[in-house]
Each structure stands twice: as C-alpha cells, then as structure tokens.
Amino acid sequence: MVVVDLQNDFCAGPVAAARYPGDPARLATVAANTARAVEAARAHGIEVLHVRFLGDPQHQGASWRHRDAALGKRPKCLDGSWGAEFHAVAPAPGEAVFTKLACFDAFLSDGFEAHLARRDVHHLVFTGVFADVCVDSSARTAFQKGFHVTVLSDCTAALHLADDTVLQFMRRVYGARVTTHDRSAVWSRLPEVSEQQEGPWPPRPEPVPASTRASD
C-alpha cells in the first residue's frame, strides 16, 4: 500500500482549505478512510509505504519556479514545517518513508523503485492525495513499469478534476482496479486471485462512440 502525500498542507489547516475547491469535509473523510485502510493493510501483513512531498524553493526545478511565479503559487510542505508533517497516518516502526523533492511521481523519490524491486512487489494499492496529481502520476508510472494498480476511491480526492473522471481515466488507461477501503478481501490480493471474486480484471471499458474515439 502506497500512502501518497497525506500531509497537513494538503489535508488540513489554512493552506489545504484555500487550495481544495470542494467541501473540506471530503479531505477529512479521505484521511480517516486512509487511516482505516492502513490499519487493515497492517493486519493483513501488507507492507505500507509512505510518500511525502517537500516543496522548498531549493528543490524546485526551473519550470516549477516559473509556473509558481506565473500563477502566484506559494511553496507548500516546507521541510521542518507543520505543513510537511504527516496527517492522520503516521509511519509505524519499520515502515519506509520516501521523499519527493518538488515533484509529483513517487518513482522520482530516492529509493522508491529500488525498494519495490528488493521486495519483489508486483501490485500497488494507492491511497492519498491528490487523485489527479501525485496519485495519478505515480499510478501512471507504476502501470508503465508493469505493476498492477489498485486505487481506493474513498481514500483519495482530486484537486482540479471531478473524482469520477479521474478514476474512470485510470480504469481505462492503466487498467486500474478501483475499490474502497472496506473491501480489504479484494485489494489485499493480487488481481489474478481477486478477479475470481470480482469478475474480469481489469474492468472492460465502456464503448466509445466512433465519432469521439481517439488513438492512444
């Protein structure tokens, strides 16, 4: 299980409230559900990986700095600040923590991919924020590198797009299995095992009208 950026600046306090366009209660629900999913994962003996973001200016590339200046964005999750601290879920002793330095993708954090290789991991269950930014970026790379992808829909929320739109995109493009935190009997298993209970995996995409169909 990969917990992505469940940090104060993204989930609670004035920074999160100013950025998130929806009901702040949604972020509280996502955090609470993720905490429950993490406890279930631990109970099943599933490894939990924690990914965090640090946005200090010294970590930002030129394009990141240019974007922030053009859009008036302030850096978030500054190293050592309350905003950078984990929210609702704290790493347990022995659980690995990976740090992204002003980037979205967990695979760009030092040691993340190597850790998966050492552990012979083939299936990643994603939770955390935001569904259309860091969760999507990490899930996209995971798919391209051959990992099975599961996303817990009630443990994530989108920042810029509708939640359903983002999840449907992941289903269609990454073949992601989308389920909820309370279905641990499903997400705790590799897709090849759980598909016998859940039906074909990945879900068969709905037909797209020929007039709107685009090539990959």
Protein architecture, described:
With 216 residues, the chain is of the alpha/beta class. It has a single domain, classed as Rossmann fold. It has nine helices and six strands, in the order E-H-H-H-E-H-E-H-E-H-E-H-E-H-H. A six-stranded parallel sheet has the order 3-2-1-4-5-6, sandwiched between helices. The longest helix has 20 residues, at 24-43. The two termini are 29 Å apart. 36% of the residues are buried. Mean pLDDT is 91; it is low at 193-216.
Number of domains: 1
Mean pLDDT: 91
CATH topology title: Rossmann fold
**Widest sheet: strand order?**
3-2-1-4-5-6
Please give the share of residues in helix: 25-40%
Distance between the termini: 29 Å
> Structural class of the secondary structure composition?
alpha/beta
Largest sheet: 6 strands, parallel
The number of E-state strands comes to 6
Radius of gyration: 17 Å
Number of helices: 9
The CATH superfamily is identified as Isochorismatase-like
Poorly predicted ranges (pLDDT <50, ≥5 residues)? 193-216
